[in-house]
């Protein structure tokens, strides 16, 4: 099972990258679970035709009881991708990271992975925070590998550096490792060179490059990934190539 956690600066496009990767894996015939680890609970919306799944924390808060089946806190989207959102506490009350931990514990109790038997699990994690509950995907062994989404923007690279350092702090405990960077182009001057230099200095690899694309935006307005919208587009092929590469490396 390929288990990936995707991190990066807030607003850098993690959810877009994650959802399109999920769609690419599914298009290659894999059973995929995507878990959104953000109180906004919008990670999987473009896999579900623009309709949000009820977050786990909302389910628990409204019903004041635990589900007895994972289907009560999930929804199937494009090509059968199982979509789950952790959600978070009532704004201003409680810690969002605790929502991630509570969700993961619940999924273990429901034996989700044993019963659903996914080939790929993707965790889309909030912003550049790698502490508390937001570190759970890599610290607790849920994810094996980390992809960091960045552009050539200064703050995106700053966040990528912090995330890389944080993950390395867990290496001696056999937790997840950084697999590489996804360069999500923002048309910054000398962007490829800047990110390549950053990667070289830290011993990282750019495993995928996604060009700036109006098609991504257009299909997201329709509640779709670009893979679902038109898998023949150049940008769609970039996601499919990245998915194939990740599967090949796992094999």
Mind sketching the topology for me?
Elements: E1 2-8, H1 14-27, E2 32-37, H2 56-63, E3 75-76, E4 82-85, H3 96-109, H4 112-116, E5 120-125, H5 136-139, E6 145-150, H6 154-168, E7 177-184, H7 191-201, E8 206-210, H8 214-221, H9 226-229, H10 234-250
Parallel strand pairs: 1-5, 1-6, 2-4, 2-5, 6-7, 7-8
Antiparallel strand pairs: 3-4
Describe it:
- It is built from 10 helices and 8 strands.
- Helix 6 (about 155-170) links the parallel strand 6 and strand 7.
- The mean pLDDT is about 90.
- It has an 8-stranded mixed β-sheet with strand order 3-4-2-5-1-6-7-8, sandwiched between helices.
- The protein is globular and about 55 Å long.
- Helix content is about 40%, strand content about 20%.
- With about 250 residues, the protein is an alpha/beta fold.
Key attributes of the depicted protein:
251 residues, 18% strand
Please summarize the sheet with the most strands. 8 strands, mixed
Structural class: alpha/beta
How many strands appear in the DSSP assignment? 8
The helix/strand series, from N terminus to C terminus, equals: EHEHEEHHEHEHEHEHHH
Q: Which of globular, elongated, flat, extended, rod-shaped describes the shape? A: globular
Radius of gyration: 17 Å
Strand composition percent? 15-25%
Helix content: 25-40%
Number of helices: 10
Strand order of the largest sheet: 3-4-2-5-1-6-7-8
Q: Low-confidence parts lasting 5 or more residues at pLDDT below 50?
A: none
Mean pLDDT: 92
Distance between the termini: 10 Å
């Amino acid at each position: 099972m390929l288990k990936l956690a995707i991190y990066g600066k807030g607003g850098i496009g993690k959810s877009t990258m994650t959802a399109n990767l999920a769609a690419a894996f599914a298009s290659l015939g894999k059973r995929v679970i995507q878990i959104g680890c953000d109180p906004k609970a919008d990670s999987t919306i473009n896999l579900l035709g623009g309709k949000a799944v009820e977050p786990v924390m909302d389910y628990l808060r409204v019903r004041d009881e635990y589900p007895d089946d994972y289907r009560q806190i999930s929804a199937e989207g494009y090509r059968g991708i199982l979509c789950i959102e952790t959600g978070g506490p009532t704004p201003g009350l409680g810690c969002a990271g605790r929502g991630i931990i509570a969700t993961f514990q619940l999924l273990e109790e429901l034996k989700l992975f044993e019963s659903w038997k996914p080939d790929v699990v993707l965790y889309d994690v909030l912003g550049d925070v790698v502490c508390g509950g937001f570190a759970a995907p890599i610290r607790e062994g849920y994810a094996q590998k980390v992809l960091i989404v960045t552009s050539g923007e200064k703050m995106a690279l700053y966040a990528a550096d912090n995330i890389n350092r944080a993950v390395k702090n867990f290496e001696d405990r056999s937790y997840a490792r950084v697999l590489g960077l996804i360069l999500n182009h923002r048309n910054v001057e000398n962007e490829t060179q800047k990110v390549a230099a950053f990667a070289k200095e830290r011993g990282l690899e750019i495993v995928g490059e996604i060009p700036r694309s109006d098609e991504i935006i257009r299909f997201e307005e329709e509640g779709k990934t670009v893979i679902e919208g038109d898998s023949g587009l150049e940008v769609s092929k970039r996601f499919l190539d990245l998915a194939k590469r990740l599967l090949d490396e796992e094999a």
